Each structure stands twice: as C-alpha cells, then as structure tokens.
Amino acid sequence: MEPVGTRPPTAITHTALLTGRLLRTLWRMPTFLVIGLVQPVIWLLLFGQLFRSVVNLPGFAHGSGGFLQFLTPGVVMMTALFASAWAGTTYLQDIDRGVMDRLLTSPAGRGAMMCATMAYQAIQTVIQSLIIVVIALTAGARFPGGGVGVGVTVLAAVLLALIFSALSNAVALLTRQQATLIAISQFTTLPLMFLSSAVMDLHLAPKWVAQVARYNPVEWAVVAARQAMLAHTDWITVWTRLGLLAAAVLVMGLFATRAFRAYRKSA
Predict the structure, then answer these.
(1) Helix axes 235-266, 110-139, angle to 10 degrees
(2) pLDDT digit string (tens) for 53-109?
(3) What would the pLDDT profile of 119-131 be if each residue is shown by its tens digit?
(4) Contact yes or no for 141/68 (Cβ under 8 A)
(5) CB neighbour burial string for 16-34, b if at least 16 within 10 angstroms, e if fewer
(6) Which of 40, 62, 120, 187 has minimal CB crowding within 10 Å?
(7) 155: which residues sit within 8 A by CB, 6+ positions away?
(8) Spatial separation of the C-alpha atoms in residues 39 and 232, rounded to whole Å
(9) 80: closest CA among 155, 15, 8?
(10) Model pTM score
C-alpha cells in the first residue's frame, strides 16, 4: 500500500490549492471586491430612499416591510449576477499570460481548474451578500425571516453566481476574446435583472414581463430570498426555486466542462 504522504493530491486538494491561488490575488488586491459593491450600495441606499413610496401603490404586494426590505434581495442577486458575469476574465488573463499552458502541463486536475474558479466566485458572493445585508440592516431594513432567511438569501445568491460564472467561463474559453465576453455580459445581465422582480413588483409590470420572469434564474433567486425573509415563509416556493437554480447550475457546469474540453483540443 502506498504511504499516505506520497499519495497524489486528490481532486479536492487540487481545487483547494487553485482556489487559494485566486483568493490570494483577492487578498492582495481587495479593490475588486470593493468596486463590485459600489453600484449595489448606491442602488440600495439611493433608490431605497428615492422610491420608498412605491410600496403605497395599489397592487404592490410586498409593501408591508417597506421598499428597503423589498429591494435588498434584489440588490443581493444583482451583485451576484454582475460579478459572476465577469468570471471568465480570469481564464482570459491566464491564457494571455501563459499560466493556462503551465497549468495544463502540470498534474493539476482539469475538473479542479473549473471548480476552483466557481468556488472562488461563490466565496466572493458570500462576502458581498453578507455586507449588503448588514448595510440594509444599518439603513433600517428589518427581515422577519431572521438568520434562516439570510442564509437562504446567501445560498440563492451563490447558486445564481455559479450559473453565470460557469456561463462566463464557457464563453471565455470558446471565444478567447475580452471584447466578446464584455458584449455578451452586458447583453444578458441588464435584461435579466429588469425582467425579474429584483427592483419592482411584477404585479405592476406588463403581463408579458411576468410571463418571461417565470423562466428567469434571477427571478428564481429573488423569489426564494424574498420569501425566506418574510415572517410567514412559503417554503414550498423557496425549495422549488432553489431546486430550479441547482438544476441550472448542473446544466451550466456541464456546458462549461465541454467548453474546457474544446479549448484543450484546440490549444
């Protein structure tokens, strides 16, 4: 039997080491984490005050806790969406600097290389989501769902981030073009956000928007988080939306894996 100390590292060890490499970069340059929070905080504090009377409109179904309580889950998901849409830039930088070639000639597991970027994005999403919730609480928002509601909100944000980071990774590996990745990110993120209830109750939106939102992962995450933060949570709705998000993670994970194989064959 081979001694434990000489066993080759497992896939989990490879993933942990590669994730640590990305986290060290974030630790040395936390500016990226802070910049990613600037716009969401503006949305939360400025729009939360500017449109706080919206909850008094007839048909606004989530106004009992105030607009800040309504807006916070949407801002958390918006942050996860925008940050994960740029996840593919890590691969593009590694390709341009030759790091990808060195990794491919190393014993590092190919699956671990993909899992590490997604794990890094999940950790970043957890940190940013908790910061936004704390800012909302400081600004006066109250969440009757308590710690469980916040936990579900963070979980939904992580699942959403995994979906779009996998998509971003796949686009980066297939196109290898920064301009193309930026164009696709901008083309998808804003429409997906506004075709959901992230910033406005869908009861006040056109019916076609509500119909489209039923198939929108951003809407699934927002609904799960908003329900979990209520005093009387509809857990069937919460688990259904989380299940849809988990299924989408698997689909996008497979897509990203196939994109990675296509890159290896063409590299």
Answers:
(1) 140
(2) 888 887 777 767 788 899 999 999 999 998 888 888 888 888 888 888 888 887 777
(3) 999 999 999 999 9
(4) yes
(5) bebbeebeeeeeeeeeeee
(6) 187
(7) 242
(8) 31
(9) 155
(10) 0.89
